[in-house]
Amino acid sequence: MPAFPRLPDHGLPEHALLICGLVVTRIIGWGSTFYALSVLARDIRRDLGLDVTTVFAGITVLLVTGAAFAPAIGRHLDREGTRASMCIGAVACALGLALLGCAQGPVSYLASWVVIGIGHAFSLANVGSVTVAHLMGPRTRRVIGLMMLATGLSSAVFWPLAAVLSDTLGWRATWFLFGAMQIVIVLPIYAAIPRRRFPAAAAAATPVPATEVTRLPPAHQRVGFWLVALIFSASGLVSWGLPLHLIDMLRASGMAEAEAVGIATLSGPATLLARLVDATIGDRLPVEQTALAGLVLGPLSCVLLVMAPGSPIAAIGFVICFSAAMGVISVARATLPLALFGRGSFGALMGRLTVPQNLAFAAAPLLFAVMIEHFGRDLTLIGSAAIQVFALLAMLALMRLLARP
């Protein structure tokens, strides 16, 4: 498998400003195309006459669209680098957000999310991780961890921003402004990414650093790929579904509204702290071990809440442990494939992994809504633990595969 040319040892200072810029683009990108809808959904429902399922189906459309485009985009990233793709993505996101501001009914509304999904696939999703892998070489894991740490601020920035803009300008103007951010702020940063190509002959002639040797031999890579896809699709099914209903589940335990909201807000700091720990000390441990810790902690936290219903202490422990586990796993989703398969075809690999992951993410909100409605809180938590145990077993199988001679 070809490797990308090795970067000089001073790569981190050289690209530090660009990495900071990419953090800004991820905050804006995820904040405007994902988190802002939670705030603007009520006004959209009122003015367009849509039900809540249709409004949030926009996110499903985004994820399914991204899954359709991801494999081809991933192969392009390996051949041409990420600069052109991300610039196209910024323009597509801007266009989609502008169309969203012009939506008049369900057809135009959902069509806007198709355009946003195309932009998301070209510039967000896993493209940022591929960019870091191209630029940072052996430092990729730490830098991705720091980027994920900062990306966790998207909701903290765009929830209040969307609320203020919507109250003062209306939801349509808010989408227009978010689209303008893509052109004025995001696009110039993407345009600053080095225009690099990685011809196969040049890459093959480049020595591969010892830290970047592929850990899975060719005979095991197919099985390893499907185990990784299973691990992150199963864990992602829970991490994208359960938190959307967290406040309602806490209220169902008998907590008052204010108490449930207060406990749920601990999720953000817990996720950020877990990502910070992973970014600072994660290099000392193999990434599969940190991912394993998250996959163990996740189901245990769900069982904790089932065993102590109505207990504020158990609820706090659940939110902190579950959020920390999902924070670690979200970083491993980008770094584990890199550690196992190397950088040679990282873009194509992440594109292929995006397909099952995005389909799981897209199904998660509806699945958990149905589970809660038909089975109740406790059985939903037990089901969440079982899904995560399934991912845990796949991780143990992957680690056993790595231990083979």
TrEMBL record:
Keyword Nucleotide-binding belongs to the record: no
Transmembrane stretches, start-end: 16-40, 52-74, 86-107, 113-136, 143-162, 174-193, 223-240, 260-278, 290-308, 314-341, 353-375, 381-403
Entry membrane topology: Multi-pass membrane protein
Record domain Major facilitator superfamily (MFS) profile: where: 17-405
SUPFAM superfamilies associated with the record: MFS general substrate transporter
Subcellular location as annotated: Cell membrane
Keywords: Cell membrane, Membrane, Transmembrane, Transmembrane helix
Molecular-function annotations in GO: transmembrane transporter activity
GO cellular component, one term: plasma membrane
Keyword Cell membrane: yes
A Pfam short name: MFS_1
Origin superkingdom: Bacteria
Name assigned to this protein: Major facilitator superfamily (MFS) profile domain-containing protein
Lineage: Bacteria, Pseudomonadati, Pseudomonadota, Alphaproteobacteria, Hyphomicrobiales
